[in-house]
Write a structure and sequence with these properties.
alpha/beta, eight-stranded parallel barrel, 10 strands
């Protein structure tokens, strides 16, 4: 993900070969594999590695939350991710350290947003990460930091310029993604539960429809107005 890249789509929480293949064939740019036992989409580093080898031209993303050195090492060895996405309370320096476990030296930081104040920490990460994922803040009783399918005020990101590329997440599905792109000004989108039949069970049809809808919305937004 870089400032010159086209609008991009990430399908996250992939945990079976059929869904991975469908995402690749439909034109997903990023494939996210969640290595976090509390998530219904959890895969082990070895499972993530086997699935990531089916990535084709897409880039693989290991999604971790407050990983220790052992887990980072296992993810790096077994999956060899192109990118690590840190979705917990990691410090800027911790994000910088995670670069060593990726194939490209690329790390993204996910941040939960419910008010404009939640964007204040962004500046502190600017020299330590390569991109951001802005997601809905998790419910107070949540046992995991993301993947709740919660829609939020995407207009909080309108005009957002964190100095690095970013993806929009939270409450996205085939019906909401176009409006969310227009409201937020997002450079890319990241979907988890919005392409599922049940928690952790991806729908092939929804994956295909979401990618089509998202890329169509990006094209429509880029079209010159008369």
């Amino acid at each position: 993900m870089n400032s010159a890249s086209p609008p991009l789509v990430k399908i996250c929480g992939l945990n079976d070969a059929e869904a991975v293949d469908a995402a690749v064939e439909a034109g997903a740019d990023y494939l996210g594999f969640i290595i976090f036992p509390q998530s219904p989409r959890h895969v082990s580093p070895k499972q993530a590695g086997a699935l990531a080898r089916r990535k084709g031209q897409a880039l693989s993303v290991a999604v971790l939350a407050d990983p220790d050195e052992t887990l980072l090492d296992e993810a790096g060895r077994h999956m060899r991710p192109d990118i690590i996405q840190l979705h917990g309370g990691e410090s800027p320096m911790r994000c910088l350290d995670a670069r060593h476990y990726t194939e490209t030296g690329t790390v993204w930081k996910a941040l939960g947003v419910s008010t404009a104040n939640d964007l204040e920490p962004v500046a502190g990460y600017a020299r330590h990460v390569d991109g951001y994922v802005f997601d809905a803040s998790p419910p107070g009783n949540a046992c995991r930091p993301g993947g709740h399918g919660i829609a939020w005020d995407y207009t909080l990101l309108r005009g957002c310029d964190p100095g690095k590329p970013w993806l929009l997440a939270g409450g996205l599905n085939v019906s909401t993604v176009s409006t969310a792109i227009m409201q937020s000004g997002a450079e890319g989108v990241d979907v988890v539960s919005g392409v599922e039949m049940a928690p952790g069970v991806k729908s092939i049809d929804k994956i295909r429809a979401f990618i089509t809808a998202a890329k169509s919305a990006f094209r429509e937004r880029a079209r010159p107005t008369s």
